Amino acid sequence: MGLLETITHPRDLSKLSDGQMELLAQEIRDFLIANVSQTGGHLGPNLGVVELTLAIHRVFDSPRDSVVFDTGHQSYVHKLVTGRQNFDTLRQQGGLSGYPDRAESEHDIVESSHASSSLSWADGIARAHQLKGESDRYVVAVIGDGALTGGMTWEAINNIAADKDRKVVIVVNDNGRSYAPTVGGVADYLASLRPTIDQVRTHRKYEASMDWGKQRLQDGNAAARFIYKSLHAAKKGVKDWWAPQGLFDDLGMKYIGPVDGHDEQAMEAALTTARNFAGPVIVHAYTEKGRGYAPARADVDDQFHAVGVIDPVTGASVEGPSGASWTGVFGDEITKIAEERSDIVAITGAMLIPVGLAKFAGKFPDRVIDVGIAEQHAVTMAAGLAFGGLHPVVAIYATFLNRAFDQLLMDVALHKAGVTIVLDRAGVTGPDGPSHHGMWDLSMLQIVPGLHLAAPRDAERLREELREAVAIKDAPSVVRYSKGKVGPEVKALERLHDGVDVLARSLHETPGAEDGKLPEIDVLIVSVGAMSELALDVAQRIGHQGISSTVVDPRWVMPVPRSIVQLASQHRIVIVIEDGVRVGGVGSRIRQELRAAGIDTALNEVGLPVEFLVHGSRGEVLERIGLTSQRVAQDVVEQVLGTKVPFARPLPGQPAPRTGQMPIL
């Protein structure tokens, strides 16, 4: 039996010697490589926090002491030492989540994987401990150097630093080389002394003595105040020479480090010092993403931040060729557009490669702006760029638009700024779970005045609609698309005058064609974006039941095209199929437009429920919520027959059904 198998609770770590801790760290790395390579997941980040996580659980007492992970993708080691060692179905339906999950363990606290929020959580938890008189409880927040670019972190630090008795330990996991490493013999000697110095600096008596001396000198005469200013400046200069602390020190936060995050004993010593200070402390740890796994370290782009199924020895993908991705199509097309238009500027938030802007950046490095994890700033800055005569394209994940809604509404839309926002991974995304599904955007965007919203169904439409979006100069435009592989092209039978594509028509013998009038068709199916395949399958299924239909793709779902309203008046019922939440979505918007036009055609919104959808593949999630062609077709048949609300408009001469009453056929 290995050491890892003996660990079922963090307290079990206290039984191990220093030598055994080193063996355990290696076991954990071997475990992660062997298991994550079979399921896919966030491999690089977790290989980088093995010793750091072990040290946290050796020094602090989870769950009495709260351990909060920012984003949470680096929590695999935490899962292992808190008794969750079955990684066979990691990120798969019914298996372990790829992020902290309260349903899995009492040791998990924050499930949201949106970055830069951990310190606000820590502030709130620590305040609760204070108010309840639980002075012996600590909060440890683990945050990456990248997440420190988010504005929320500094709002939180400002509040945490204001209370010297707040028992918050902030562990900065610095794996991005954002601080230059110190090298040389003298530096090594100073580094060997630093733990001792930190213990002195963070001792309560040291703090009390410093406060007493400061107060006496500041309250004294002019000479005393001059002496205080001189000593304070000298002290700050020595501290900055010894261990540059910058903003942390200016904010009043105690700073420990930098510490080698892969030296478990050094991490324990630093964390013990921080705990004994019993106030807000920042522990700065250097780590290597992908530590101990050569293929990850050799991956220049992101050290295997997230991988699919790979060969554990070579790190090479063993998944078959996936074909073109939505992200790749966007990346190629926006680069072509930038070659044609010098006013195109791309913006992203620490996601240059994931959103497909690497090629653009390679050709036009001066026209790509990475703002870090700061979506709010990105969107407002885009408004400024538009005012300055450029056309910014903000490329982010759909789920992260949530964070910049106010800026989109008040800075972009209110000012009629020509800004294009590209939303990658819209709709159900699959294994990353609730906080990564891009399912809220269609509802949020419906209430933004003047906004134009496109939902391409295939690669050709993405290219087409992206070009149309960047041609809009006096309003915000949004293009949203799914995650993963682009399906085959879905060709239209015809394009209507306002850009709506008719994808299919199925006519059957129906009453009402006398006197040269067109027969009323049973069902108008409005397909939004990537739901076209499902919509066409539904049309085929109901066609086998003798039900006529028209399938259309609006292409631009906002504003609602007039032809959609006109087509609705010629059908008995409208079915809108979208991969956003039903409440306030595209279906709801079309219903309102019908009512405004005096059209009483029944409409059924088919989309996602207003709930947090647990992880699983896209297909599994859609099946679990009933968003399948078989289920939708069954509902449509019942609605046309009048046995399920909303009832389709009755045929001429047929009485309208009443709820609970079978129709007269």
UniProtKB/TrEMBL annotation:
Keywords: Isoprene biosynthesis, Magnesium, Metal-binding, Thiamine biosynthesis, Thiamine pyrophosphate, Transferase. Residues 324-488 form the Transketolase-like pyrimidine-binding domain. It comes from the Bacteria. It catalyses: D-glyceraldehyde 3-phosphate + pyruvate + H(+) = 1-deoxy-D-xylulose 5-phosphate + CO2. It is an enzyme of class 2 (transferase). Its EC number is 2.2.1.7. Thiamine diphosphate binds at H73, S113, H114, A115, G146, A147, N175, Y293, E375. GO terms for molecular function: 1-deoxy-D-xylulose-5-phosphate synthase activity. Catalyzes the acyloin condensation reaction between C atoms 2 and 3 of pyruvate and glyceraldehyde 3-phosphate to yield 1-deoxy-D-xylulose-5-phosphate (DXP). This is 1-deoxy-D-xylulose-5-phosphate synthase. It comes from Arthrobacter stackebrandtii. The lineage of its organism: Bacteria, Bacillati, Actinomycetota, Actinomycetes, Micrococcales.
